[in-house]
Design a protein that fits this description.
- The protein has helices at 5-16, 40-70, 114-121, 128-146, 149-159, 164-188, 196-206, 209-215, 230-243, 251-254, and strands spanning 34-37, 79-83, 86-89, 92-95, 101-103, 108-112.
- By secondary structure, it is of the alpha/beta class.
- A four-stranded mixed sheet has the order 1-2-6-5. It has a two-stranded antiparallel ribbon with strand order 3-4.
- A hairpin with a 4-residue loop joins β5 (101-103) and β6 (108-112).
């Protein structure tokens, strides 16, 4: 994001006070809307990543708070839960193999910090903005939940299972577009540097269904897609980034 880890620590401490860096037991915490399900020893090792994600969490949510306010609505912040290996959620047990996910039942984003390692080594998408894309995408699902879209789509999926995957793809692509909307706002605030958007595009492409299926050694089955192809994911991210407006993210009308 063009900001060194030490500077991030200073910025967070200045804005939120030194309590953001450690809790009473010495473990690292994200912020008032973040939880870290790590042991104190693990927390110390993860501190730089936790600080970076804390910065992202607040920056992304401030962007959406402003967007909701301008539209005459009210944004309710989500909570980000950081963990390794596994944790419990209102949507069931979260495991590292699942990757990051959003649970609308408790309005929390669950992120196994090991996924960032996977994003770099397994998916070939390194860089801090690749990580930022992941967080922004999951918070995009929170925006969908607040707008009532998630509940409506789930109802349609139950009513017609034959189109369940198609609707899932549209939800995921819209979350990619919402991530692009935040990236536009971050660029306007001077938070991005040369190469950041390419890192985000690399991450969006790397987790396309076609890329994942090929990586697993199988053939590409479009009918089984649940998140969209690499091309679709990058295109919708760029649509949000170039427009800077969530109205450009209506994947349901565009497809």
């Amino acid at each position: 994001m063009g900001i060194g880890g030490g500077i991030i620590t200073l910025i967070l401490a200045l804005i939120f006070g030194p309590g953001i860096l450690s809790d009473s037991d010495g473990g690292t915490t994200a912020d008032s809307h973040g939880e870290v399900g790590l042991t104190p020893a693990d927390s110390a090792a993860e501190e730089p990543v936790v600080q970076f994600v804390s910065f992202l969490l607040d920056d992304i949510q401030l962007t959406w708070e402003g967007a909701f306010r301008r539209a005459g609505g009210s944004y309710r912040p989500a909570t980000l839960v950081l963990f390794r290996d596994g944790t419990r959620s209102a949507c069931g047990v979260g495991q590292s193999a699942m990757g990051p996910f959003y649970c609308p039942l408790d309005e929390k984003v669950y992120l196994d910090l090991g996924f960032f390692d996977e994003l770099d080594r397994r998916f070939g998408a390194p860089g801090d903005f690749a990580q930022a894309y992941v967080v922004a995408h999951e918070l995009g699902h929170h925006v969908q939940h607040l707008l009532g879209l998630t509940a409506r789509v789930r109802e349609y999926q139950r009513g017609d299972p034959a189109i369940a995957n198609q609707l899932s793809v549209r939800m995921e692509l819209q979350a990619d577009c919402y991530a692009g909307v935040w990236a536009h706002a971050a660029a306007e605030r001077g938070h991005l540097e040369t190469g950041d958007i390419q890192e985000g595009l690399g991450a969006a492409s790397a987790v396309g269904d076609d890329r994942i299926q090929r990586r697993a050694g199988g053939s590409v089955d479009v009918d089984s897609f649940t998140h969209g192809s690499a091309r679709e994911r990058t295109e919708w991210f760029m649509r949000g980034y170039e427009s800077g407006n969530s109205t450009a993210c209506d994947t349901f009308a565009a497809r």
